[in-house]
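Appendix C reproduces, verbatim, an entry submitted by the partner laboratory led by Prof. M.T., so that reviewers can inspect both the input and the predicted structure.
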Amino acid sequence: MYCQGDYKGVDCSIALPNGGYSTDLMKITDNFYIGFCHGDALTPFKDKKGLVQIEFDCYLPWVLANEPE
């Protein structure tokens, strides 16, 4: 089961001249940013109409004593 929706806010996707894209996310705190856009990246659904994609960045402190190999 899934819910289809629509997003009427600002699309966080920014098309780049080289054909890629970037995102312009809204700062919620110093460590958390979020944005919404119309997209279907990595969706398991066959019907891709009306999907809303959530993009976010979350910065967490490094807590391990050693760097990973």
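The chain has no helices and five strands. Additional entries are available on request from the coordinating office.
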